[in-house]
Amino acid sequence: MDVNSTRWNDDRHDEFARNVDKRFDKVDERFDKVDARFERLEDRIDAGFGRVNDRLDFLSKALVAGIVTLTGGMLAGFAAILALIATQV
User: Fold this and answer.
1) Model confidence, pTM
2) How many CA atoms lie within 13 A of 49 on its CB side?
């Protein structure tokens, strides 16, 4: 192999390496943009789950209040029945 072909090959390898580096730099930039989009999406999802969580908290409190009200009503009904029975005896 002569010196000129070796030099030409080295130059071509260097050019190829620079081109590969440029392309990977562009890929890195695109991934940075994708990462930023995912971060914004995560923020929106977190906010959405926060609203769902707030609604579930309200629903659970409403269910507990309803159960307490129903239980109180049933106890009052039983007390009325017992009072009626006691007055009939």
Assistant:
1) 0.50
2) 6
Q: Which long-range contacts (CB under 8 A, 24 or more apart) does 19-22 make?
A: none
Distance CA 29, CA 75 (A): 69
Cα angle 74, 78, 82 (rounded to 5 degrees) comes to: 170
**How many helical (H) and strand (E) elements, i.e. helices and strands, does the chain have?**
1, 0
- Please provide residue 2's backbone torsions phi and psi, each rounded to the nearest 5 degrees: -90, 170
User: What pLDDT was estimated at residue 89?
Assistant: 73
Residue with the two structure tokens 């890195």: 28
Q: Where are the beta strands (DSSP E) in the chain?
A: none
Phi and psi (nearest 5°) for 62? -65, -40
Residue 43 has pLDDT above 80, yes or no: yes
* % the chain with pLDDT above 70: 91
